[in-house]
Structure prediction request, 363 residues.
Amino acid sequence: MYLKKLKLTNFRNYINQEIVFINGINLFLGNNAQGKTNIIEAIYLSALGTSYRTIKDIEVIRFNENFCRVELEYTKYDDYISDSHHIEVYIDNNNIKNIKEDSVKVTKLIDHVGRLPIVIFSPDSLDILKGSPQKRRKFLDMICCQLSKSYYINLQEYNKCLKIKNSLLKKNIKDIDRDYISIIHDKMSEYIYNIVFFRNEIIELIQKKSKIIHNKLTDSKEDLKIKYLSDFTNLNKDKIKIILDKYFEIEIFRKSSLKGIQRDDIAVYINELEVDKYCSQGQNRTALLTLKLAEFEVLIEKKQVVPILLLDDIMSELDQSRISFLLNYIEQYQSIITTTDAEFIKNIEKIKISKVLNGTIEN
Ligand SMILES: Nc1ncnc2c1ncn2[C@@H]1O[C@H](COP(=O)(O)OP(=O)(O)O)[C@@H](O)[C@H]1O
Ligand SMILES: [Mg+2]
Prediction:
């Protein structure tokens, strides 16, 4: 995928801004709080239909305005001529959000996600290694949902069941309808089976890609492994149901769900040591870079298109050798990079530097 143009109307600190992208590195340079991340957020919002920085959509509307609009033009291939597509996201103060793809209204987000695959790498990405299991599941789900509509549906349906189950668990024991729970567990087992199967497949693929990337990044000094941790790997639907039923007896006393894919996790190891517990900050950063590039490669392989690479303020997090590796790697693709200083830019041909100053962009 290749971004051609982004138009922002009343989005965050932008009033009316058009940005034209090149097929190469698009570097947005500026001090803090000028509007660099807002550009990344706008692209993310167009691709996934929600922002990653806020829960309330209306927060992205420029202060004292009633609506905002983000328009993104992209092509599937890098010829920049054929096959041009448009995404428009409109949000207003009445909590109306309309997304249009090539002028057709998107009624379900599931139909939209995955059309314009993206990979985002920001300082927050370190949470994938250092943060809670939820952050790692989010990392995985973002890849899986962009790859498979059916995965996304399974996840949504599973979460609906989980919500119902949790509300039932809050009731008095004698009021809990066992037959109903059995029906819910039956449905959940099927969703779990599908989700675990796909997560497993994707982690194996990430592992395969990571190994090669990490070897290159560390001159073969480090061996990176990624492992999927789930109570349900290699189990069929019936066995999954047995586990859910068995744990239900404890769950009714604890009044919350104990088993399920909402407990899945990923463990990352360098030379057999868990990265977050035993490895240095530098090793963590390198491992993260590996995982992000592996994510990028998995999306390329499975979707047969190149995702949009969004790198928000990460250059300050990486040392010179990793920056050189990264720049060398991304040079052949299109990327959107934000930074406060451009010192690391050397000998790059396909680059467009734009200065960001208080919600305006100088090309
Ligand atoms: N809804 C909004 N309306 C107007 N300005 C906003 C809104 N949300 C954030 N901002 C402004 O955007 C700026 C932060 O933009 P950001 O892209 O995060 O900066 P950076 O260049 O550091 O990445 C701040 O000045 C903030 O006040
Ligand atoms: Mg920023």
In short: The pocket of magnesium ion (ligand 2) is lined by residues 36-37, 313 (CB under 6 Å).
